[in-house]
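Appendix C reproduces, verbatim, an entry submitted by the partner laboratory led by Prof. M.T., so that reviewers can inspect both the input and the predicted structure.
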Amino acid sequence: MNVIVLQVFVSLMLVVGSVLLYAFSVRHRDYEHADRLSLIPLEDDTARPAPSSETRPQQ
């Protein structure tokens, strides 16, 4: 019986910890960072590509 009480207590502490961390994340707007990171591959490249061996003059 003591094990069940301990298991319920630990489970409730995990739930409370999860809710607190979620509230902290929402308050500091950490969730917006993932959206911005997911859009980075869609940005245009501004750097010119390095010339390949085919476009270099032969010596």
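The chain is about 60% helix and 0% strand. Additional entries are available on request from the coordinating office.
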